[in-house]
Specification:
5-stranded antiparallel β-sheet; alpha+beta; 136 residues
């Protein structure tokens, strides 16, 4: 199962770079049907990490097999994300989008592996798309 890693510093440009990275990898692997949903979900998770997580940034890990992809965004903050109740027009829609596009195939894992982060005390937030993937 191929793995691809991207370091994601807490900068305004990082979500766009992460989207471009996911698009490039999935296109190269012939998984074009997953690109739109995967890039949107990736953008939401990376944005959440940049906005809410404490630390030096995040690491994106993309794994792919057959017709499926799993993206995990690891950061140094152990606070798990939560779906917000109700609708806020300004923020808080990211996990709702991820949940809808993945049909609930997302979650968190503790602790985060080192992967170039300053601490192994963080978390990973992941999603899966496509056929043949299974939730962890």
């Amino acid at each position: 199962m191929p793995e691809y890693t991207l370091r994601c510093p807490p900068l305004d440009t990082t979500p766009r770079i992460a989207r471009d990275f996911v698009t490039s990898v999935l296109s190269a692997l012939g998984l074009d049907a997953l690109v739109d949903d995967a890039t949107l979900c990736t953008s939401e998770l990376v944005t959440n990490s940049c906005v809410h997580a404490k630390g030096t940034g995040a690491v994106l890990l993309l794994t792919a097999e057959c017709e499926a992809v799993r993206v995990t965004v690891y950061d140094e903050d152990r606070t798990p994300p939560a779906l917000r109740e109700g609708y806020d027009g300004e923020s808080g829609r990211g996990l709702w989008i991820v949940d809808a596009l993945t049909e609930g195939r997302w979650g968190t894992e503790l602790p985060a592996p080192r992967l170039g982060l300053d601490s192994s005390e963080g978390k990973g937030v992941w999603f899966e798309l496509g056929k043949g993937s299974s939730s962890a």
